[in-house]
Amino acid sequence: MIDPASLAFDIDGVFADTMSLFLDIAREDYHIYNVNYEDISCYILEECIDMDPDLIETILIRIMNGTHRPPLKPIAGATRVLTRIGRIHRPILFVTARPYGEPIYQWMQNILPLDGDSVEVVATGSFDAKIDVLANRDISYFVEDRLETCYPLFSSGVTPILFKQPWNRKRHPFMEVGTWKELESLIDF
Ligand SMILES: [Mg+2]
Question: Is 12 exposed, middle or buried (0-12, 13-18, 19+ CB in 10 A)?
């Protein structure tokens, strides 16, 4: 069982349903209807979906800045489980490769019924930099959806928990969960 104090989280693809937002923006603002969630079979979007790379970039920038009309939603069950964690441990640490954390921190404030100091968001700007942040925080477990990040995490002594997504369906040696309910069952409340 995992001590909540030793657990940290990625945000996009784990807490935030960022790829659904990506598709919502593509549909509503750019009238792209031929791409589905299950088509996102790799992390680098231009390599797996049929969409103009410049448009992919434009939408991703809007997501990072929080300048989009369709709302960003949490992944099913995430809010409930994080709220439960937040009642016994604070701050809950989130480490993201986003270049800046403020818009997503504000989003969390709106989503989670917890005090502002219940969450801490560290934005590293790179996948590799996540490792150093976690190593300096006594974190033993990290929930992540990018399979490539799990290998250096593991090498640095942090046990990755892969959150299943269409873009990480390759063979791997790590623990994985498909839902927040499943993740919840691993946590020592
Ligand atoms: Mg992610």
Answer: buried
Q: How far, in Å, is the centroid of ligand 1 from the Cα of 180?
A: 15
What are the beta bridge partners of residue 100?
none
Tell whether 118 is covered by a domain: yes
Q: 168 alpha carbon to ligand 1 midpoint, in Å?
A: 11
* 8-state DSSP, 60: H
Q: What is the pLDDT of residues 49-107, one digit of tens each?
A: 999 999 999 999 999 999 999 999 999 999 999 999 999 999 999 999 999 999 999 99
Q: Are 41 and 169 in contact (CB under 8 A)?
A: yes
CATH number at residue 138: 3.40.50.1000
Work out how many domains the chain is built from and give that number: 2
Tell me: the pLDDT tens digits for 113-134? 999 899 999 999 999 999 999 9
Q: What is the pTM of this model?
A: 0.96
Q: Is the residue at 189 inside a domain? A: no
CA-nearest of 179, 175, 134 to 152 is 134
Q: Are residues 10 and 26 in the same domain?
A: no
- Answer yes or no: do 153 and 134 share one domain: yes
- Residue 34 is part of which domain span? 18-65
pLDDT at 135: 87
For residue 124, how far is its CA from the centre of ligand 1 (angstroms)? Answer: 12
